[in-house]
Amino acid sequence: MSMLVVVTESVPDRLRGRLAIWLLEIRAGVYIGDTSRKIREMIWEQVNALAEQGNVVMAWSTNSESGFEFQTYGENRRIPVDLDGLRLVSFLPQK
């Protein structure tokens, strides 16, 4: 089991309802929980199937150098980059 955080923006209510089945919504669009890898992967499948034009970031605790890992869905100014095996976030210029 590992701590999981999911942050959503502009996603359909249907996805928000699905996330609320497995995770606790502590603020609008912010979900947390303690899940297994299998449940985390199943949640990410739901994100890919239901997020439509919204965007999502999912972060979870790991035994890595930083102590966490994350993945993103959809367009956002923040994009993940890999720097010598360390995942960081870069910002795209505003339009």
From TrEMBL:
UniProt-listed Enzyme Commission number(s): 3.1.-.-
Gene3D superfamilies cross-referenced by the UniProt entry: 3.30.70.240
InterPro entries to which the protein is assigned, alphabetical: CRISPR-assoc_prot_Cas2_sub (IPR010152)
Keywords (A to Z) from UniProt: Hydrolase
GO molecular function: hydrolase activity
Pfam annotation, one family: Cas_Cas2CT1978
Listed NCBIfam families: cas_CT1978
Record-given protein name: CRISPR-associated endoribonuclease Cas2
Species annotation: Marinomonas aquimarina
Lineage of the organism: Bacteria, Pseudomonadati, Pseudomonadota, Gammaproteobacteria, Oceanospirillales
